[in-house]
Amino acid sequence: MIKHPIGIFISGRGSNLKSIVDACKEKEYPAEVKVVFSNNKNAPGLSFAKENNLEAITLDYHKFKNTEEYEEKIISLLKPFDLELICLAGYMKILSKKLIGHYPNKIINIHPSLLPKYKGLNTHQRVLENNETKSGCTVHYVNHEMDGGKIILQREVEISAEDTETSVSKKVLKEEHIIYPEAIKLVLTK
Ligand code: GAR
After folding, report:
1. Strands across the sheet with 151-158, in order?
2. Is 4:31 a contact under the CB 8 Å cutoff?
3. pTM of the complete model
4. Which of 4, 102, 111, 177 is labelled catalytic?
5. Is 134 left (phi over 0), alpha (psi -120 to 50) or beta?
6. Ligand 1 atom nearest 120 alpha carbon
7. Which of 41, 110, 115, 165 has its CA 20 to 30 A from that of 53?
8. 26 contacts 54 by C-beta, under 8 angstroms
9. Where are the alpha helices (DSSP H) in the chain?
10. Terminal CA-to-CA distance of the chain, rounded, Å?
């Protein structure tokens, strides 16, 4: 089994990072995490990366003049890893066409809603406000439109009247941890 080199971008907790790293430990899984990138040097997920001896790079956006220069630096730092896929996993910074153009059809993202519904932030809160009876998560390609790229995989969860933002988030996250490794496998083996 060829292990394709992938990179994971995080900004926070990193539970999706963990699910992907766990999947990569399987002999028959077609990917290996070569690098973890974060815009936030305090992201808790970086501790997980360190404990698992993963290469981790952090870069503070505020030290750059603009997004273009920031992403140029990211591109140069990632170059040695020859990444075939970049997986945004709770990476809370919108990418510009600089990075997207450098990795055409090679950047995917996970979003905690059933896209195209509930793009953007505070998805669970909006789902509850609208009395939805189901929500879920989506893995999709990243393009110029926020949360708008082609859908790769989705998974639904049921929402009941007793649900809170915390309980919905927990249910959805459980499904995220299943579909993200599956989606990566699909993309790399298609
Ligand atoms: C996940 O729920 C992911 O879907 C969401 O952030 C969380 C990150 O959790 N991503 C977005 O909202 C992107 N717009 P994690 O750091 O534990 O993987």
Report:
1. 56-58, 31-38, 4-10, 85-88, 107-111, 134-141, 151-158
2. yes
3. 0.98
4. 111
5. beta
6. 14
7. 110
8. no
9. 15-24, 45-51, 67-78, 97-102, 123-129, 165-189
10. 14
Structure-token match 């999947």, residue found:
23
Using the 8-state DSSP alphabet, how is residue 90 labeled?
Answer: S
Q: 4-189 maps to which CATH number?
A: 3.40.50.170
**Torsion angle of alpha carbons 184, 47, 175, 114, nearest 10°?**
-80
Report the nearest-CA residue for atom 8 of ligand 1. Answer: 90
pLDDT per residue as tens digits for the range 14-42:
999 999 999 999 999 999 999 999 999 99
pLDDT at 21: 98
Cis amide linkage into residue 116, ω under 30° from 0: yes
For the chain, which residues make up each domain, given as ranges?
4-189
Residues with CB under 6 A from ligand 1: 10, 12-16, 45, 89-90, 110-112, 173, 176
Asked whether residue 63 carries a pLDDT value surpassing 90, the answer given is yes
- At 75, is the pLDDT very low, low, confident or very high (cuts 50, 70, 90)? very high
Nearest CA to ligand 1 atom 3: 90
Looking at ligand 1, which atom is closest to the CA of residue 91?
A: 13
Report the amino acid identity of residue 36.
V
